[in-house]
Amino acid sequence: EGSAKEFIQAGLSEDTAYKAASIPMLSSALDVVDASMMYHLALEQVMAAYTMVGARLELGWFRDQIKQHPVMNNWDALARSAFRDDLDRQQISLTISILQMEGNMTDVEAKLEAWMAHHQHLVDRFKDLVTNLKAQPQRNYTMYSVALRELSDLSQAARVSSVAAKFGT
Q: Are the CB atoms for 90 and 152 separated by under 8 Å?
């Protein structure tokens, strides 16, 4: 919505603005469709959870910082590509964990809230890192690596608790 409104203010028609605003989501579309099919989840729910967790954890901002980081050599280009892939992988993993939460909640937002409350400590740690990253005048790949590691820890904890809930442990 925000991007579309910016495009409209810049003079694009509403139709073109919404199409242009959806372009960044296309890179994630295959992951969302794949998760929907693989885990037998409603596509609309997967997309909603993916978008919501991304917004709540500011993963879009984080992704943009990685994309915009200058590349000085081939190793930097490889690192940037790997970081983007890792971020996408973690976001879809978090999405699946949210949707597979035990209980009789069907509302995606309610599941997200319950999931965030269950993993509050790790969510807070990641959010603190993002706040710290935002405060840095210059960022580097080491910072992104540490933040991605925290996100990976959150994703792993979510997967473990999801599996444990299924087996009653």
A: yes
Asked if 109 and 47 touch (Cβ cutoff 8 Å), the reply is no
Residue 168, classified by CB atoms within 10 Å of its CB into exposed (0-12), middle (13-18) or buried (19+), is exposed
CA distance 131 to 142: 16
The one-letter amino acid at 107: D
Q: Say what the pTM is.
A: 0.82
- pLDDT per residue as tens digits for the range 30-70: 889 999 999 999 999 999 999 999 999 999 999 999 999 99
Nearest to 31 by CA among 91, 80, 97: 91
Q: How far apart are CA 20 and CA 4, in angstroms?
A: 7
CA–CA gap between residue 104 and residue 111 (Å, rounded)? 9
Instruction: Find the length of the chain.
Output: 169
Q: Which residues contact 7 (CB under 8 A, 6 or more apart)?
A: 16, 17, 20, 21
Tokens of 45: 């729910």
Whether residue 144 contacts residue 83, with contact meaning beta carbons closer than 8 Å, is answered with yes
pLDDT tens sequence across 93-111: 999 999 998 776 678 999 9
